[in-house]
Amino acid sequence: MKKTLLLFSLLFLIALPAGAQSFDLPLDLPDTIAEGRPVEITVAACIGEDQQEVRENFDAQLARFNKVYPNVTVTRTQYCFSPESLAALVAGGNLSTVFGVPATEYRRLIADGTAVNLAPYFEAFGLEGVFNPTLMALLSDEQGNPHGFPEFSYAQGIGWDIEALTEAGFDGPPQTWDELREMAPALVDPATGRAAFAMFLQGGAGGWHFTNMAYGFGATELIRDNGDGTFTAVYGEGPAVEAMQFLRDMKWELNALPLDLSSNPTFEVVDGRAVIFMSPADGSLGWLRVNMPDVDLKRFGYTAMPAAPDGKRYTLTGGSAQMIFSGATPDQQEAAVVFQVWRTLSAEEFAPSRTIFQGTQAGGGTPVLPVYAGAVQEAVEAFDAQFITMPVENYQGFYDALNAGEIVLVPEPPFAQDWYVAIAEVMTTVLTDQNADVAALMAESAARFQSGILDQAG
Amino acid sequence: MEIGLTNSAAKPARRQRLRIDWSQQIPAYLFLLPALVSFTIFAWFPILNSVVMSFQSVNLVDASRSTWVGLRNYERMFADPTFAASWINSLEFTILSIIIGFFVPVVVAVLVNEMRYARGFFRVVYFLPSVIPPLIGLLVWRLIYSPNPGGLLNSLVAALGIAPQQWLQNPALVKPSILVIMTWGGFGGTMLIYLATLQDLPVELYEAAEIDGASIWQRGVHIVLPHLRSTMLVLLIVQVLGLVQIFIEPLVLTQGGPGQATMTPVFTLYRKGFLNGDYGLAAAWSVLLMIVLGVISFIYLRVARIAD
């Protein structure tokens, strides 16, 4: 890791002129903040203990900001998001002025007012159209007011062991779930107990994975928002039931799923206990690059989720965004917004910020979603090209689908956390009881969810 | 305490209680004050606040934006699909733990007490699981319980001709599997308590029984168990208190599954509060849990008084 950081630093010094901003964003940042009054803000940074140079670069950036706005003092705080600590920090008013959150928290933090409404700042600073509109939709309230700056975003996809797939007689991954079902018998190895396909199968992660799968079977909604403050659980019939039946068949008819329902799908494939896995690329391939550097990443390919009947590859998205704490004073909020915009989009700080960001990421070249739009995104991709360490030639399927507009991001269902628990309960029942009646279980689950969760809301 | 002079022989006791020597009482209360303040700030105030929150739709950012919803959170709690499952699971864990794990420390304590040599060594060995951090222990047990044929436990049972089992994925096996872990982690400390109690056992009684030819089983049943009975009653209540609050095992091993087999009140409370951000509903769960634990604690205090 230290050698990699040294390389990043050298590349930064060498490439700074080459990687300088090639877009001319008409930012309209103010000349002064808070009319010159002293302001102190804090910025939460999740920088690893062994990332000393990233930390130093970040602190140097804070010092440069203080030179531009001498009345503003920015202090870095070490904070990596966790739901338990966030609640305590919010309740105590101690949350950093600028803080990062994962995509699963966007809706909640917007609804409960933790994140500041950034619409006035977006308008004042000319930020319309800068960010990926699909990501901004996830970061906006019902009136379309943005509440965060997207920082990183990924889509669900499938990866596979290239050699194992080839040996089984296939030249590429399945393009649909039906194809996976057809390929599964050839991928299963009874002698070694190798499964064909692995995904998270229990808990919230299992529910999240199943949701992606259900969309791939043509489900357009699982919990319907009736628009009048009420909701209807519609997953008790239709494509979601088909998806659950698919899982059941993969387990009991084809013996194509791992024995361990609690296992990490990436580990199943790395250890040879499965051939294909479902996972976001950064959480699997990127994670391997950082935590298991001895694993040869060239062994694995990665592509977008299998296509739904309409040809689209639906996926939930994950990632992170920077939000501004509403518990801060108006002066602090203004300073925080200016700081965030200045450090990521100003001409002089674009390159240092991208370098810092890449220093905290799992692996340059990991298939992820564009955060920006237009010329800004082009400049980001051009600059980030120097940090590529992953075998991107194995991820062409993902990029082809992305460029063809096949990857469609869908928001989480309403009451997502309760939904994930409810559907995971059905999953584990189906996968541990060979005689489970899938249709009946799904219908019962939907009825219980309706009466116990949806009808009680509001 | 001063005893006041009275004209009536029937009144001295009441007058005695009213005449309090504050010069002696105030220093005592001053010594208690730091503890009282600490308990107020870190225990009683949060408890009271939780009760208040259970009647609110809570806004952590701005408490003034929290709204009163009356019994709505309690209605939602009782209607929640996981409510019944959580409490039934607690009851099942309790019953199974009595069957599987309650007598383990008793038996081990009796056996260790019978030892003439290396008693200290075995006291240490059996206590060691108690000092292992729970999370570390659970991660190791997850490997032991691996459902793959090459998993440690499945390898052992394979030698007995038993097929690989889904120890943590089979609803019929998951509770006993978790209770084995909890017994392993907790029996050492309980064993030491029983051992200490056994030190009060009159040696002459024991030796007389031994001389009369009583076997280990007979000495255990007719001498040791009656002597341990009151301690066992108290520790049973303590065990029940702990079982109602099972949390880390479902969190690390099963996420409440398979199905709802290991969903517990504290695990559900955690999800509602920290993952759903529904602090009012989580507070309602915590108030109900507090009431249940309070009832059990009341029983514990009565049993402890009887034991004394």
Give the SSE map.
The complex is a heterodimer of chains A (458) and B (308).
Chain A: H1 2-15, E1 39-45, H2 52-68, E2 72-78, H3 83-92, E3 98-102, H4 106-111, H5 119-125, H6 133-138, E4 149-161, H7 162-167, H8 177-187, E5 195-198, H9 203-216, E6 223-225, E7 231-233, H10 239-252, H11 265-270, E8 274-280, H12 281-291, E9 300-304, E10 313-324, H13 330-345, H14 350-359, H15 374-384, H16 396-403, E11 407-410, H17 416-432, H18 438-454
Helix pairs in contact in A: 1-14, 2-14, 9-10, 9-17, 13-14, 17-18
Chain B: H1 12-18, H2 22-53, E1 56-57, E2 67-68, H3 72-79, H4 81-100, H5 104-114, H6 119-131, H7 134-144, H8 152-158, H9 171-198, H10 203-211, H11 216-244, H12 248-254, H13 265-275, H14 279-307
Antiparallel strand pairs in B: 1-2
Helix pairs in contact in B: 2-14, 3-14, 4-9, 4-11, 5-9, 6-9, 7-12, 9-11, 11-14, 13-14
Gross geometry of chain A:
globular
| CATH topology tier name of the largest domain in chain B | MetI-like fold
Elements of chain B, N to C (H/E): HHEEHHHHHHHHHHHH
Strand count, sense and barrel status of the largest sheet of chain A are: 7 strands, mixed
**Mind telling me which CATH architecture of the largest domain in chain A this is?**
3-Layer(aba) Sandwich
C-alpha-based Rg of chain A, rounded: 23 Å
Average pLDDT taken over every residue of chain B: 87
Query: What strand order characterises the main sheet of chain B?
Result: 1-2
How many distinct folded domains of chain A? 2
Low-confidence parts of chain B:
1-11
CATH superfamily of the largest domain in chain A: Periplasmic binding protein-like II
CATH homology group of the largest domain in chain B? MetI-like
Could you characterize the architecture of this molecule?
The complex is a heterodimer of chains A (458) and B (308). Chain A is an alpha/beta fold and 458 residues long. Chain A folds into two domains: 2-154 and 317-396, D-Maltodextrin-Binding Protein, domain 2; 202-256 and 415-458, no CATH class. Helices cover 44% and strands 15% of the residues of chain A. Chain A is built from 18 helices and eleven strands. In chain A, helix 2 (52-68) links the parallel strand 1 and strand 2. Chain A is globular. Chain B is mainly alpha-helical and 308 residues long. Chain B has two domains: 1-41, no CATH class; 72-307, MetI-like (MetI-like fold), CATH 1.10.3720.10. A two-stranded antiparallel ribbon of chain B has the order 1-2. In chain B, helix 2 packs across helix 14, helix 3 (72-79) crosses helix 14 and helix 9 crosses helix 11. Chain B is flat, with a radius of gyration of 26 Å. Classes of the chains: A alpha/beta (458), B mainly alpha (308).
